[in-house]
Amino acid sequence: MARVLVGITGGIAAYKACELVRLLVKGGHEVVPLVTPGADRFVRADTFLALARRSPADDLYAHLTQADLLVVAPLTANTLAKLAHGLADNLVAEAALAHRGPVLLAPAMNPRMWAHAATKANLETVRSRGAEIVGPDEGETAEGEWGLGRMAEPDEIYRRCRKLLGESDSLAGRHVLVSAGGTREPLDAVRFVGNRSSGRMGVALAEEARKRGADVTLLAANLGVPVPGGVEVVETPTAQAMLEQALAHGDADVVLMAAAVADYRPAGVSDEKRPKDEEAWNVTLEPTIDVLRTLGERRTNGQVLIGFAADHGERGLARAREKLERKRVDLVVYNDVSREDIGFDAEENEVVLVETDGDRRVGKAPKHRIAAAIVDRAEELLRERTR
Ligand SMILES: Cc1cc2nc3c(=O)[nH]c(=O)nc-3n(C[C@H](O)[C@H](O)[C@H](O)COP(=O)(O)O)c2cc1C
After folding, report:
1. Pocket around ligand 1: residues whose beta carbon is below 6 Å from it?
2. Where in the chain do CATH 3.40.50.10300 domains reside?
3. Residue 178 in contact with residue 210, Cβ under 8 Å?
4. Which of 53, 179, 276, 368 has the most CB atoms at less than 10 Å from its CB?
5. Could you tell me the distance, in angstroms and rounded to a whole number, from the CA of residue 159 to the centre of ligand 1?
6. How far is the CA of 141 from the centre of ligand 1 (A)?
7. Which CATH architecture has domain 175-386?
8. Pocket test for ligand 1, best of 16, 75, 76 (most atoms within 8 A of CB)
9. What DSSP state is assigned to residue 182?
């Protein structure tokens, strides 16, 4: 999840920054609003904190927060001058000095202020240091004058933010279904049979698809990592819940089944906790319905269906190839769980993308990079299918 500092300075257009904050939050970004005293006269800082779902206590040193992007919208002539000269007498000016990373500025002011030589010189100074400028647009200002000076529209500023954050629209209009985590199959009212999957890989896939503009549904099975922003999360704690929700969302354009779904579950589960005694507890495990195979049998709409296989060594890789055929999926992402340094509950992974025409190895890398390689391939398959 990218963290974005949003500076709001004292112009009428401060009200439009509410929409920008809302778009950023909806898009799955963490927003830290920084409001100058000048801006607080127009829209109270509390409004921005509420829209960003933060409390003032979160932000003792908000201006020093490390962030992926600083956007100032609206940018007044006054704050532009401060940025050009390195002043640091309020939250926004301080943040601009402390921030290392891309900067996007959305100036908004009276057309005569905008045309002034001092403003022009200040703009050139900040631009020469790498800041990007969006707008201003031409139109009628709040005081009824006509000219260049209106702040760019929030959706345009948001579009530029996404670009600076390395996000794209390559999956815009597409529905991507991702499963993540590990199911837990109840033994009784309190105990379960589970597995070590943290959900990191699936969450990385969901975030990657969202960054590319997809509508993402995440089937979350007992995640050990935070849920990503900007995606629809559906809790699917058991194999049965996973099956039902996967079928309910079965018309997705791309399905990435990364969750570790139990192959077996205890038969005859008690509603109560089994009391402790001296006897052995023999449990019969019955097979669950195979979610991936069911999706493979039912798909009709040119959907790209990708499964995951966690197995051991070269023999496991051979089983992943069989799985590809048997479950009628386009690709199986093979994960060698005999290695301690990758896979289950690890930060990094190394996978083999198994397809009918051969294997592609993706070298050891953080899970978000592996996710990008998998989503790249999913996109290629989608393009081939819809060509
Ligand atoms: C009603 C009103 C509207 C204003 N609108 C703007 C504006 O759109 N752009 C601008 O640069 N200054 C505008 N100002 C002037 C700024 O509020 C003023 O320069 C202030 O010191 C800016 O402080 P800040 O940059 O720290 O937020 C406006 C002032 C008033 C009273």
Report:
1. 9-13, 36, 38-39, 76-79, 90, 108-109, 113
2. 175-386
3. no
4. 179
5. 25
6. 13
7. 3-Layer(aba) Sandwich (3.40)
8. 76
9. B
**CA dihedral (111, 114, 115, 118) positive or negative:** positive
DSSP 38-98: HHHTTS-HHHHHHHTT--GGGGTTGGG---SEEEEEEE-HHHHHHHHHT--SSHHHHHHHH
- E strand segments, 289-357: 304-311, 331-336, 348-355
Specify the domain boundaries for CATH 3.40.50.1950 within the chain: 3-164
* Ligand 1 closest atom vs CA 41: 17
Residues 87 and 375: their CA atoms lie apart, in Å, by 44
Residue with CA at minimum distance from ligand 1 atom 10: 76
**Catalytic residue positions, numbered:** 195
| Atom 13 of ligand 1: nearest residue by CA position | 11
The tens digit of pLDDT for each residue in 329-378 reads 999 999 888 876 665 666 778 999 999 999 999 998 998 999 999 999 99
With beta carbons less than 8 A apart as the criterion, state whether 54 and 34 touch.
no
Ligand 1 centroid, distance to 99 Cα (angstroms): 23
Give the integer Cα–Cα distance in Å for 336 and 342: 8
Q: Would you tell me which CATH number, out of the four given (3.30.300.350, 3.90.1150.10, 3.40.50.1950, 3.20.20.150), belongs to the domain 3-164? A: 3.40.50.1950
Q: Distance (Å, rounded) from C-alpha 179 to C-alpha 245?
A: 10
Task: Quote the distance between the C-alpha of residue 297 and its chain's center.
Answer: 30
pTM over 0.90: no
Task: Report which ligand 1 atom has the smallest distance to the Cα of 82.
Answer: 25
